Amino acid sequence: PRLYSYSYSTSFDGEGAITSAIDYVVNEEQPKLYLVEGHGEADLPSTFAEQVEKDNIETESLSLLHTETIPEDVDCLMIYAPESDISEEERDILADYVSTGGKLLVLAGPVADGELTNLYGILNRYGITVAEGIVSEGDRSHYAFQAPYVLLPELADTDITSPLSEKNYYAIVPIAAGLQLSGTANGTVTALLTTTDTAYSKVAGYAQTTYDKEEGDIDGPFALGVQIEDNGGGEIVFLTSSYLLDDMYNA
């Protein structure tokens, strides 16, 4: 069998460390990021976790199963790579949190067993539906590693994605669900990452036996990430891959 190897280069970011230390001294209250747990969520990848720490963002775990309200010191809630769905009660807690000004960051792609019906259901309020299956890209210039499900989407002109596109970076988005946007009266939706028109969602998901488009597969284009500004003042950034931050793909 062919063996693949990944090489990592490390360097000491002295300037970043000093800037982080100054920021810590100057700011009495550091932002607090709560990581939702209880659904098989993955640990944050080391590179991302180190960046969060360097930015002086405190992290803490939170189980929504044991609370009816979100703690007041939450600056942002994050759900990272869950293996199973949230409950209807948790969905409602999160929706209320956002509609009253809360900030929610989600990275959640298709799961091998079951569906993330309630978690994805948070998007329905904003006219967003999630296509069944795993997205494949039909345009060779928009996928990586000869794998049509390892997507290289178009980056929108937004505060989140422009710093990447301006430096000619790509976003590698593996094993993603496709979002279909139909408009909403409950907030403003901005697509961050989008496939080409030749993308399609393989409804067989993890059980697919061919990359080719088959009867019943869903036509694109799709958004793979959205920024939502709720009319109540809250904000959601929802990305439909659990592997976007994975150190292997970003090596």
Strand fraction equals 25-35%
Coarse structural class? alpha/beta
Quaternary form: single chain
Quick check: average pLDDT? 88
Distance between the termini: 22 Å
Number of helices: 5
User: Biggest sheet: strands, sense, closure?
Assistant: 8 strands, mixed
Gyration radius over CA: 19 Å
How do the strands of the widest beta sheet line up side by side?
2-1-3-4-15-14-11-8
Q: In which range does the helix fraction lie? A: 10-25%
Number of strands: 15
Outline type: globular
Low-confidence runs (pLDDT<50, min 5 residues)? none
The ordered string of helix (H) and strand (E) elements is HEHEEHEHEEEEHEEEEEEE
Can you describe what's shown?
The longest helix is centred in the N-terminal third of the chain and has 13 residues. The protein has five helices and 15 strands. It has an eight-stranded mixed beta sheet with strand order 2-1-3-4-15-14-11-8. Strands 6-12-13 form a three-stranded antiparallel beta sheet, with no helix packed on it. A two-stranded antiparallel ribbon has the order 5-10. 17% of the residues lie in helices and 25% in strands. α3 links the parallel β3 and β4. By secondary structure, it is of the alpha/beta class.
